């Protein structure tokens, strides 16, 4: 172990050594071996086991056709054991000897044979097309005469006259009821039309078997490659759980603990620089996670190879890596930010809830985009969990999403995650260094803004209207832009009253990012890709632009206020109210931009409801920016 | 290691100064005390010295090299114990030292040897594998200081190391610092418990509101504030029980202020402040003997650092 540790980079060595000190490394290795063994055993068991539970698992995982369908399609009854096989043999002998009328039991053999023969009787009633089908019809009639002559009269028995109590109702046929009246036990007939080749094939099989279903002892239809596949599938699940939930939470909790117990400061006085410390602090918990991940990665790779879907598996690992790096560093930053005020336990629980919620949303979105909706395929660019879900499914089931755009967006998201992770690492390093100033430089913020702009535009359908791209893009970008702007607010270990914040330059930065989305992207989109597209210049209506500028400025002021000083409850309530007015203002901007509003009365749309409300809206439009600037002046040493 | 601070200043907001125009010259191998009330700028000064904070103005030099040029390199030569440093309670002293040694990029073999040596130096060998959470506060403080010395720095910076220690822990700390000084390490220590520094430090600096008030060897500082302040303690034989009263009667006629009377080791004593130097004291002594007071000893009482500090503080306030 020591030799292995010596190979670690200097920044990771102290923290990995700490995480694996004493007997911890051995314990983790044993647990990991047990987990890997369990993954393999469960994979083999589910793939090859012949019990009901394993069969149902395989069926629910779509690795095996449901037993009923298999029995119907192959006209083969599956016995779960030797005793059942013997019972079925007895039923078969009766069927061969006495025909369907001799069977009175309720076993699967009887119902399979009954259903097949009843369906044959229904097939006789349906109009056949072509020589082949008519010849088959004749063969079926001959078969029924020998095995179940009663069924030749089933149409007559099944006839029900129209109900006199319900004028206009049609006469109808209930074949299943007629069958039970004839034989004393119930079966339901299968769907049959001569136009359905699968249904016709089943009738062909019935004729070839002379109306006698085969009997087989049930065994899993899956082989070793599927066993490895299912083990790999489980391993993939463990990888996702560790990479996107466990590792980030472990790192966040440890970082919060370092802050909470003030143990970080001595580390900053060592020969490791802040970036090395940031990476090192995450390296400790990650080393523990890796002990569990590496063997699972082996199982995952083996499974993907066995199933033959290596490329999607690599895509899955790429998306997972991007997401894990971002989530881990992001969680570490959260732990660092809140660790001084909240206990590590609270941080861990909060992040766990957040992770579960994000996964629920991401997996649902991923499934929907993957299987059904091409229009929302791009949304996976916004949430790594969605792309991961799609690649995971492709790795084990092949086929792929209905839209190739899904994978492009997912891979773009992975790239975006790595850029965002780099920014988070820079911010974290600044926090650890404890130097005053903003967490991100202007250049870093621009890089972040451009990355988010790219992802937001990928998230929208390729054929989206330009105006939609402009406004929905800004809506999507509002959250990342707020986070970026907050990271640009100068912080330090002094009281807010002693700090000065450059409010106007910061608002200018936010304005520039927003302009890039609102003006630059449409220009690029129209100019380079779709010159024939029509760009309605009404989006530049002065009233709409004023409302848009207002909403961007107020959003910026709210973000600066949130980042620069702690808030009291009343301030938070006021900020929340201001945020609501931003949404209303944005809606005004959109409606003016798309031409829905074009009357002077609609400058303040609340006036439509009541003149008083209109006046109030106008007053708030003036007062809100002023109040936010006043608030900033009162809590800070100065603003520029 | 010699430490020089040349016009060092620190402001967090570009407006108010936490430390300003601080000039210090700390000789190699000395124990240097930094004294000042809370908020005076001690921790800021020490953090700048330890390269954890960049001065807004001025320079910090270690053996003539500016630390700002290579802060990480400088850090390898500094051991810094900040204010209120807790331990990882679940780690043993050996594990804790190993972690910090690795943070200083010490090679494995050298590190293991240094851990053994340091644990022995600090009398922690018996507690090598005991979790730090189970150690006494004094022992934990020793572990913390041991951590600062593991990588064999030339400068040890301790911010309020005696804070929260009981008298036994403080004595322990004194002995430890003495041993460290014997190793040739320069020690810079801050405290507001002046008695801790009085007989421990070779030199002190008193700072208030971020500015240096006075700095230098303790004796020099005391002497420079001793001018026109003569305090004497007289011990007397008291055979008839009226020695103190007779002495008070004589002193009432002279320019002398009685600071304290009492009894020590079975003998009455009077502590007086004489407003006239040694000549006046000689006169008083002659009159006391003439009045039948049997003076056994007469000794001049020197001020302590704490007295000087109090006086300087009063002047600052006034």
Automatic annotation (TrEMBL), chain A:
Keyword NAD assigned: no
Domain of life: Bacteria
Alphabetically ordered keywords of this record: Membrane, Transmembrane, Transmembrane helix
Coiled-coil intervals: none
Membrane-spanning segments: 28-48, 228-257, 277-302, 309-334, 346-367, 405-427, 439-459, 471-491, 503-527, 539-560, 572-591, 603-624
This protein's name: Uncharacterized protein
Organism: Plesiocystis pacifica SIR-1
From TrEMBL, chain B:
PROSITE patterns tied to this protein: ABC_TRANSPORTER_1 (PS00211), ABC_TRANSPORTER_2 (PS50893)
Any one GO molecular-function label of the UniProt entry: ATP hydrolysis activity
SUPFAM superfamilies from the UniProt entry: P-loop containing nucleoside triphosphate hydrolases (SSF52540)
Entry coiled-coil feature ranges: none
Listed Pfam families: ABC_tran (PF00005)
Domain ABC transporter: 3-234
Keywords recorded for this protein, A-Z: ATP-binding, Nucleotide-binding, Transport
InterPro entries reported in the protein's UniProt record: AAA+_ATPase (IPR003593), ABC_transporter-like_ATP-bd (IPR003439), ABC_transporter-like_CS (IPR017871), P-loop_NTPase (IPR027417)
Protein family: Belongs to the ABC transporter superfamily.
PANTHER family per the UniProt record, alphabetical: ABC TRANSPORTER, ABC TRANSPORTER, ATP-BINDING PROTEIN
Annotated protein name in UniProt: ABC transporter ATP-binding protein
């Amino acid at each position: 172990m020591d030799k292995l540790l010596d190979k670690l980079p200097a920044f990771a060595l102290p923290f990995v050594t700490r995480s694996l000190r004493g007997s911890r490394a051995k314990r983790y290795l044993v647990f990991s071996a047990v987990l890997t063994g369990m993954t393999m055993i469960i994979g083999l068991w589910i793939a090859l086991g012949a019990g009901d539970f394993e069969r149902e698992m395989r069926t629910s995982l779509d690795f095996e056709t449901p037993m009923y369908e298999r029995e119907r399609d192959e006209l083969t009854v599956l016995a779960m054991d030797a005793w059942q096989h013997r019972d079925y043999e007895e039923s078969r002998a009766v069927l061969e000897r006495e025909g369907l009328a001799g069977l009175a039991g309720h076993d699967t053999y009887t119902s399979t044979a009954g259903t097949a023969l009843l369906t044959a009787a229904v097939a006789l009633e349906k109009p056949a097309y072509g020589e082949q089908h008519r010849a088959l019809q004749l063969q079926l009639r001959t078969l029924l005469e020998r095995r179940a002559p009663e069924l030749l009269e089933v149409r007559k028995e099944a006839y029900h006259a129209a109900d006199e109590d319900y004028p206009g109702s049609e006469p109808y046929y209930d074949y299943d009821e007629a069958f039970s009246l004839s034989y004393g036990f119930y079966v339901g007939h299968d769907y049959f039309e001569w136009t359905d080749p699968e249904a016709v094939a089943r009738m062909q099989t019935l004729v070839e078997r002379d109306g006698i279903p085969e009997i087989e002892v049930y065994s899993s239809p899956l082989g070793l490659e599927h066993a490895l596949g299912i083990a790999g599938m489980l391993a993939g699940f463990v990888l996702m759980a560790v990479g996107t939930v466990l590792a980030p939470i472990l790192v966040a909790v440890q970082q919060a603990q370092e802050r909470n117990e003030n143990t970080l400061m001595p580390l900053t006085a060592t020969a490791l620089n802040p970036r090395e410390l940031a990476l090192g602090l995450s390296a400790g918990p990650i080393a523990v996670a890796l002990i569990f991940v590496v063997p699972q990665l082996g199982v995952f790779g083996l499974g993907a190879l066995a199933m033959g879907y290596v490329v999607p598996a690599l895509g899955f690992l790429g998306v997972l890596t991007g997401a894990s790096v971002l989530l881990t560093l992001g969680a570490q930053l959260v732990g660092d930010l809140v660790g001084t005020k909240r206990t590590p336990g609270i941080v861990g629980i909060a992040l766990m809830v957040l992770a579960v919620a994000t996964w629920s949303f991401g997996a649902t979105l991923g499934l929907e985009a993957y299987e059904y909706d091409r229009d929302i395929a791009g949304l996976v660019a916004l949430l790594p969990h969605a792309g991961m879900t799609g690649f995971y499914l492709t790795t084990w089931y092949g086929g792929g999403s209905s839209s190739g755009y899904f994978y492009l967006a997912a891979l773009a998201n992975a790239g975006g995650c790595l850029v965002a992770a780099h920014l988070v690492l820079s911010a974290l390093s600044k926090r650890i260094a404890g130097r005053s100033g903003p967490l991100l430089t202007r250049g870093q913020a621009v890089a972040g803004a451009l990355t988010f702009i790219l992802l937001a535009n990928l998230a929208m359908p390729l054929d989206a209207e330009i105006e939609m791209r402009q406004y929905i893009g800004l809506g999507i970008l509002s959250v990342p832009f707020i986070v970026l702007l907050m990271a640009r607010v100068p912080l330090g270990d002094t009281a807010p009253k002693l700090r000065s914040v450059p409010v106007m330059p910061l608002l200018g930065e936010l304005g520039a990012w927003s302009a890039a989305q609102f003006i630059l992207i449409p220009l690029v989109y129209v100019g380079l890709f779709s010159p024939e597209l029509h760009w309605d210049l009404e989006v530049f209506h002065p009233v709409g632009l004023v409302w848009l500028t207002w909403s961007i400025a107020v959003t910026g002021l709210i973000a600066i206020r949130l980042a620069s000083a702690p808030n009291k409850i009343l301030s938070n309530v006021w900020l929340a109210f201001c945020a609501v007015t931003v949404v209303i203002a944005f809606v005004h901007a959109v409606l003016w931009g798309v031409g829905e509003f074009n009357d002077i009365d609609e400058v303040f749309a609340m006036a439509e409801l009541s003149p008083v409300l209109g006046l109030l809206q106008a007053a708030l439009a003036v007062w809100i920016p002023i109040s936010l600037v006043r608030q900033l002046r009162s809590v800070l040493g100065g603003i520029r | 290691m010699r430490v020089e601070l040349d016009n060092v200043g620190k402001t967090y907001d570009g407006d108010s100064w936490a430390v300003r125009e601080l000039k210090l010259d700390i000789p190699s191998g000395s124990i240097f005390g930094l004294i000042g009330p809370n908020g005076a700028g001690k921790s800021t000064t020490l953090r700048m010295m330890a390269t954890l904070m960049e001065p807004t103005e001025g320079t910090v030099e270690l053996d003539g090299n500016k630390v700002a040029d290579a802060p990480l390199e400088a850090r390898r030569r500094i051991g810094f114990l900040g204010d209120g440093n807790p331990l990882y309670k679940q780690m043993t002293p050996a594990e804790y030292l190993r972690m910090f040694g690795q943070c200083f990029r010490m090679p494995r073999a050298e590190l293991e040897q240094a851990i053994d040596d340091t644990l022995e130096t600090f009398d922690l060998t018996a507690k090598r594998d005991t979790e730090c959470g189970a150690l006494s506060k004094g022992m934990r403080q020793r572990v913390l200081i041991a951590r600062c010395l593991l990588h064999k720095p030339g400068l040890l910076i301790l911010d309020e190391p005696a804070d929260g220690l009981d008298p036994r822990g403080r004595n322990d700390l004194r002995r430890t610092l003495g041993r460290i000084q014997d190793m040739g390490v320069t020690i810079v220590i801050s405290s507001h418990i002046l008695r801790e520094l009085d007989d421990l430090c070779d030199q002190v600096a008193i700072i208030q509101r971020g500015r240096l008030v006075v700095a230098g060897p303790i004796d020099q500082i005391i002497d420079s504030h001793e001018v026109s302040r003569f305090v004497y303690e007289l011990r007397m034989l008291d055979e008839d029980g009226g020695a103190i009263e007779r002495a008070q009667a004589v002193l009432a006629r002279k320019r002398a202020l009685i600071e304290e009377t009492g009894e020590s080791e079975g003998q009455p004593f009077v502590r007086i402040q004489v407003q006239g130097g040694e000549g006046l004291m000689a006169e008083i002594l002659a009159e006391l003997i003439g009045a039948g007071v049997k003076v056994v000893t007469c000794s001049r009482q020197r001020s302590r650092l704490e007295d000087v500090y109090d006086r300087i503080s009063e002047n600052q306030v006034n």
